[in-house]
Amino acid sequence: MMEPLNSPPLTRQQMQERLRADPSVSVLIIGAGINGAGLFRDLALQGVDTLIVDKQDFCAGASAAPSRLIHGGLKYLETGEFRLVAQSTRERNLLLRNAPHVVHPLRTAMPTHSWWGGIWPSIQRFFRRPAKMDDRGILISEVGLTLYDFFGRHFRSMPRHSVMLGRRVRESLPDLRRDVRALHTYYDAAISQAERLGFELIDDGCRTHRGAMALNHVNLIGGDGKGVNFEDEEGNAFTVRPQIIVNAGGAWIDEINRQLGRETQHIGGTKGGHLIVDVPKIREQLDGRMIYFGAPDGRICLVYPFMNHVLIGATDIRCIDPDQAVCDDAERDYMLEAVRYLFPDVTIGPDQVRYRYSGVRPLPRSDAADPGQVSRDHAIVEDRIHDWSVLSLVGGKWTTFRGFAEEVADDVLSRLGRRREIDTRQLAIGGGRDYPRDASSRETWLSRVTALCEGDRHRAITLLDRYGTRGEEVGRHCARMSAEGVCRQRSLVSLTDYRVGEIDFVCRFERVEHLADVLFRRLPIALSGQLDSVVIDEVASLCGASLGWAEARRREEIDAVCEIATRLHGVSLMPEHDHSPTRASEAAS
């Protein structure tokens, strides 16, 4: 099995210089969401010279806005998509093994209100006919979960489903609505830091093969048959001459094809809104579980504990312009009302929403009246544009990205006349490599890293939780800089669970171009509801010191983050706990 290079990957400047000297690459991937990132890593492992580019940061579009579930797709059984369920459950089980630092088992409870409800709507949905499914009864749920267990048998690492009835339901969830007669419990998985895993796929690819290059914040200018033209944010232009182009632009696939020279109509995306809400009473009752339930209008909703808050999702609304996708107030109110329906005695309102987000799913164009009925399967669509084969990656989801990448990579390898060298099914990703899986190996790792953290065991645990085994590199970086007389072990004033050297590490070694890259994607600062004006100011100062920003640039970065936080995520930037000038001045110093 090919091991990552010990030497660091090429810098941004080195990659651009190399492309100007020789613009030829075997494969150009446009779009660095999860589909593109997964394919990039797979091709790099096979030794294919590949360039991946994105107009934003890595995993900044819909890939940063999922329900954060790694799941087999229980609802796909209703539409008879058995192959997709089988693939999804298998890939879920593989991700639990390959990315244990960010993918964790999620116990899931599904409330039912009757014994016989949902049988006729299930039959209609199986034959792709519209049907409102507001009650999945005990019988139909039992049948579905038995099938779900069967499809998830490969690489199984979690228990099979179970059911509780009557009084036990009340004891388990005291504030649940009174007409719930049973709770079915089964297991799926959740991904705590989707954006981080996306970056790690990119980073693994760059570290594995010198011919693998990745550039974020690069604009596609167009293609003229001789080459594909790009320009970075400083106005530096360069041309790429690929043999094959893969369009992994997600909701922007048709726009990318238009810029390359052909009008297509492959995508009919829907936006999904989600909320991060501070509601301790529900979080405590959930006790680590997700509740997967039907709202009165028949839509599937979910609520589960997430980073000291509760994550609520999701909407499914047709969206024409992905650049304008936001979780608006109407969506927010719909999701809050769905939770009030489930927990009628718990107070939950807009003032408890700490963060909201929305992304456009790159679904295939469809005339289905109900967006929820559009298949979540994936497909490769080929177009001939100029002299290039352009492969558009339509559909897909976080759970199945590895399998989709494998399918596309095998297609690309065949076109290049090459063979697969590395199987990715059992290959760990990023901080999941050499992850301590038992108490003894975990203790060994923590003891070693605790020594790097000046004897702070809690800090070592935080590094393992946040970065997986790459936390040791972070700890070593902080320790080395402290030994050189630079105080990198100091906690941030505004974020006591982060260290100065940690921010420096991320800025220097994780392809950061903007403050938003750090706050929204490399680290779960915004996602965990911790973003405010003091946090932004302090982290901007640290990023500026690491990346050499002048004061004017630092202010620009702060303004950009404030605009993103308020417009796209509904964040109130006033510090919640301490508004004093002393805290602000300490953080900025």
Automatic annotation (TrEMBL):
It holds the Pfam family DAO_C. GO terms for molecular function: glycerol-3-phosphate dehydrogenase (quinone) activity. Residues 27-370 form the FAD dependent oxidoreductase domain. It comes from Chromohalobacter moromii. Its cofactor is FAD. The lineage of its organism: Bacteria, Pseudomonadati, Pseudomonadota, Gammaproteobacteria, Oceanospirillales. PANTHER family: GLYCEROL-3-PHOSPHATE DEHYDROGENASE, GLYCEROL-3-PHOSPHATE DEHYDROGENASE, MITOCHONDRIAL. It comes from the Bacteria. This is Glycerol-3-phosphate dehydrogenase/oxidase. Residues 423-554 form the Alpha-glycerophosphate oxidase C-terminal domain. Belongs to the FAD-dependent glycerol-3-phosphate dehydrogenase family. GO terms for biological process: glycerol-3-phosphate catabolic process.
